[in-house]
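A note from the maintainers: we've had questions about how concatenated examples are separated. There is no special marker in the raw files; a new sequence line simply starts the next protein. For clarity in this README we add a label.
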Amino acid sequence: MFPKPIYDITPFTMLDYPNHLATIFWFTKCNIRCVYCYNKDLVFGEGKISQEEALVFLNSRVGLLEGVVLSGGEATLYSDLVAFCKKIKQLKFKIKLDTNGLNPEMIQVLVANKLIDYIALDYKAPKEKYYEITKDKHFDSFSETLNFLIKKQFPFEVRTTVHRDLLRVEEINRIIKDLLKRKYNGTYYLQPFVFTENTIGRVKEEKNPFNIAQLSKELEVIWRV
């Protein structure tokens, strides 16, 4: 499956892995279709870089970089991800996984085998709006991943991309309420939607205001720009 799972490599980032110099591997394919997503090449395209080619690149960065970010697309769709992570670990890199959480079985295996060090988990929308945003009905799979990470006290963050016409302050506050109910005590990151004309759902530019001051103060919320 996916003999060339990686669409592209970002050789260097100081922003995508907290406190670590890293590279990003952008995996192809995704199991949801977020209407505001502009990464059509990743979601629908074919990979250009094999696991072996990616490892050759990593070998050239030993001693220069500290971490690898597995992003996409959705890296957990790659059936050989466990074996790939083992090879990355043999090179002494830390691994961060960006994920929508819809493959809890894979994530549990990666955590149990200490193959990842940090996760950024996308909380796309409250349950009642999850299908509208993602065109996927498996909120319960995301919920399982979220509960697992909280129970394990695994190092992770929760983040939401905010299109102000699709997710209003009230809905973000519902997410905050849900996180508190589950006993999540980390930081909740909000990411602004960046308009392009190439989104999967052909969404329009935002028109509604978003008053950050109306967000719940019960959880630390950071607007990441």
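[label: protein 2]
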Amino acid sequence: MLHAESYISGAELAADCQVSRTAVWKVMEQLRAEGCQIESVPHKGYRLVSQPDLFCESYLKRAVKECRTNWQFRHFKELDSTNNFAKELAAHDAPSGTVVIADQQTAGKGRIGKSFYSPKGNLYFSVIEKLALPIAHMMSVTACTAAAVFLALKQFGVMTQIKWVNDLFLNQKKICGILSEGSFNAELLSMDYLVIGIGINLRHDPGCPEELRSIITDLETETGTCINKYDLLIEILKQLEILLDEIPAHSYLDIYTKNSYTLGHTVRMDNGTEGTAIGFTEDAGLIIRLSDGTEQILRTGSATVID
């Protein structure tokens, strides 16, 4: 948050914004009414102590101005799915680095056709990426994104684990889901564009369906603290920019492997076969050792931890 540790005078703000001191005071009162905690001290000025999760494009643009990617933000109070909207934009030539954000989703999407419960209070966004990558790297993108979210949460003191291939867990419950979708050039066997959707549970939801309460959790419940979702978004974008560039070198795999929720456990595949998860291929395929000693590589479907 800007000026969270220091004061800025009303005169400076008025000069920067080319408005009167009275206008600055009125804006401060409006921000306080919207939930911002602003401290004011005579002869010192104003200090932002805390702020609610309010979308502010200028704040986001300033925070990512050092990034190589020209991040562009589109915010909505409600969408059926940020991935759906982002795919529509990408199909109409929206640039790489477009970020679609929704306060809630009415039809959030998970892998393999599953739904993703998406109430207000959490972070839901999708990123359009136009990468010169072969189709074979599709799973790498999802795993790479999971590593980026892991690193971003770590910056806020939250240590999660990555469940193959697209979930992050905290205290053995799901806290984040990732869904990568794209459009492919069949002739060149390459990606035209990718849409990477990320949903992270930040706040306790008293309306959470009973059938999900033993499966999912949120940062507030597990840590007792509330992370500003836009500060978290900024950190994820910074980490994602770095790791996506390194996909051909597979550098994300070290993070992905060391912080795996899946490795070393007995897993059950969709066909009912069970085995021990022992490692990952370079493209993030899951290597499973079966009871007869043979190995199988899983690249589609799911692997449920059962021990």
